[in-house]
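stage 2 :: seqdesign
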């Protein structure tokens, strides 16, 4: 079986559950709204929130890896592992300063943003590729903002976490509808 046939079979299989990615995206959007209800005065609470976002991001990468093949699958798995390491750091040291949390979260945003940019450029010919490019660029900008010394306050960490959850939600919804379109194109 040729690599193209394997990819088409994988797309058809993933297209059957396109709605799952849309539901996951919607849940990310709800989470983004709920983030702003967190008590912004405690480092511990924000650290736990950071860990949860990183674990959820890792889970999404592993789910998305099932819809990919070849190097893209391997890259998604590596990104998921990187997110788990970042989550572990957030959970291992929940009492760290806001500056340390901002640094940890900046790496999460940087990895997610660079991956989204590279994947969007690779998928330039597909529908909605530009949405993923915009989300990736915003994530990279947020990463540098989080890493810079621009007054690391609890409020900014909450905004960064909320913005990354919003970006993840949009990315998953776009991915789900892209899978649906590819599945329709592959079946007829």
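stage 2 :: out
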């Amino acid at each position: 079986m040729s690599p193209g046939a394997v990819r088409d079979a994988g797309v058809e299989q993933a297209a059957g559950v396109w709605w799952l990615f849309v539901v996951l995206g919607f849940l990310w959007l709800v989470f983004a709204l709920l983030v702003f209800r967190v008590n912004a005065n405690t480092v511990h609470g924000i650290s736990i929130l950071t860990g949860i976002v990183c674990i959820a991001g890792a889970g999404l990468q592993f789910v998305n890896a099932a819809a990919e093949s070849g190097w893209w699958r391997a890259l998604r798995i590596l990104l998921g592992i990187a997110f788990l390491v970042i989550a572990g750091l957030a959970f291992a040291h929940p009492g760290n300063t806001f500056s340390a949390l901002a640094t940890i979260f900046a790496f999460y945003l940087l990895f997610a943003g660079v991956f989204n940019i590279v994947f969007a450029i690779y998928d330039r010919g597909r529908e909605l590729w530009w949405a993923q490019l915009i989300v990736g660029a915003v994530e990279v900008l947020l990463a540098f903002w989080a890493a810079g010394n621009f007054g690391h306050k609890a409020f900014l960490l909450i905004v960064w976490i909320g913005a990354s959850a919003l970006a993840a939600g949009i990315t998953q919804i776009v991915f789900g509808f892209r899978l649906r379109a590819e599945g329709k194109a592959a079946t007829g």
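stage 3 :: structure notes
- Residues 110 and 140 are 5 Å apart (CA to CA).
- The two ends are 20 Å apart (CA to CA).
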